[in-house]
């Protein structure tokens, strides 16, 4: 299957990054190369684009899509490793960083990758295609650990009931497919609540995917380290798709803009810390009704943009 991913908030991202033809940019989530190809098209000789993705299929697809642009290259790496990648390439500072934190259309629409609750396939969900899988978590974690993941990463109020249902089932035989997991989740949620907030398995699948890929840990690492590699005036644009990611980005951006860390009751600042950045958009940018109609996956997208002072 061809790697396909519809880039969300494409024009808004390009405007937010304020691309210079001779600038250096990082797309930390290359996917199918949608955002990357638009960035590369706006660069001239002297500009540079480094696109990262930890999914080998995405690396292959983005590399092919970026072939017309000699100033663009694709690296197989997690965006949490942006500083290390830049060090290897001999780049100290960049003019813009973009992260699209959504799961790609390809990953969701390729059943054998095991991301989707809409198809019956082996439990997997690994973006790197190696390491701990959804099968390992569903069948190997104890009830309390499984419930914690589902509750914290999926914000699922029936997390304990779901974990207990999974535990009962796996004592008879391993839970091997997405279809089996969906049915266990459905059984664990009271009938009247099964379709509150969308598909009953949506939150649990999100939670397990986040755990499999260490998504929040990697985002936290990136937020702590990648900002320092921006040149003055450089911009950091991040698209989030659920409240946990968005809250983390919002709080980190706010801290970078705040500067002063003195207690609120201090009459004057004594810490001397100054703001390191300013918000480009005070409220998150959301997809237009037209884009949401064309691409349903854009409906939960929020774009936040920061500029380094």
Short description:
Helix content is 41%, strand content 15%. It is of the alpha/beta class. Strand 2, helix 3 (56-65) and strand 3 (72-76) form a beta-alpha-beta unit.
Look at the helices and sheets and give the structural class: alpha/beta
The average pLDDT is 94
Q: How much helicity do the residues have?
A: 40-55%
Can you count the helices?
13
Strand content bin: 5-15%
Please give the alpha-carbon distance between the first and last residues. 44 Å
The largest sheet, given as strand count, sense and whether it forms a barrel, is: 8 strands, mixed
Order of helices and strands: HEHEHEHEHHHHHHHEHEEHE
**Total strand segments:** 8
Q: Note the overall shape.
A: globular
Rounded Rg: 21 Å
Enumerate the spans where pLDDT stays under 50 for 5 or more consecutive residues. none
Could you explain the architecture of this structure?
The chain has 309 residues and is α/β, with parallel strands linked by helices. The protein contains 13 helices and 8 strands. Strands 1, 2, 3, 4, 5, 6, 7 and 8 form an 8-stranded mixed beta sheet that branches. The termini are far apart. The model has no long low-confidence stretch (mean pLDDT 94).
Task: Give a quick set of tags describing it.
alpha/beta; eight-stranded mixed sheet; 309 residues; 8 strands; globular
């Amino acid at each position: 299957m061809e790697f396909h991913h519809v880039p969300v908030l494409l024009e808004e991202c390009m405007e937010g990054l304020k691309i210079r033809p001779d600038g250096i940019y990082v797309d930390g989530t290359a996917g199918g190369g949608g955002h990357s190809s638009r960035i590369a098209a706006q660069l001239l000789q002297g500009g540079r684009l480094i696109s990262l993705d930890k999914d080998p299929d995405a690396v292959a697809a983005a590399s092919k899509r970026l072939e017309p642009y000699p100033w663009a290259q694709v690296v197989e790496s997690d965006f949490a490793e942006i500083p290390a990648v830049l060090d290897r390439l001999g780049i100290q500072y960049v003019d813009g960083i973009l992260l699209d934190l959504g799961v790609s259309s390809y990953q969701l629409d390729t059943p054998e990758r095991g991301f989707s609750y809409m198809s019956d396939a082996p439990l997997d969900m690994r973006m790197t295609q190696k390491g701990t899988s959804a099968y390992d978590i569903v069948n190997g974690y104890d009830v309390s650990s499984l419930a914690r993941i589902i509750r914290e990463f999926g914000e699922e109020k029936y997390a304990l009931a779901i974990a207990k249902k999974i535990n009962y089932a796996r004592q008879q035989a391993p839970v091997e497919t997405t279809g089996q997991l969906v049915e266990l989740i459905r059984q664990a949620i009271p009938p009247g609540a099964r379709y509150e907030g969308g598909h009953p398995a949506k939150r649990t699948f999100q939670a397990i995917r986040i755990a499999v890929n260490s998504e929040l840990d990697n985002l936290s690492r990136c937020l702590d380290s990648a900002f320092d590699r921006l040149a003055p005036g450089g911009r950091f644009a991040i698209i989030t798709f659920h409240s946990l990611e968005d809250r983390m980005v919002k709080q980190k951006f706010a801290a970078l803009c705040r500067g002063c860390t003195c207690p609120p009751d201090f009459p004057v600042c004594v810490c001397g810390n100054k703001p390191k950045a300013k918000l480009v958009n005070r409220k998150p940018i959301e997809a237009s009704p037209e884009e949401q109609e064309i691409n349903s996956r854009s409906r939960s997208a929020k774009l936040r943009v920061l500029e380094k002072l």
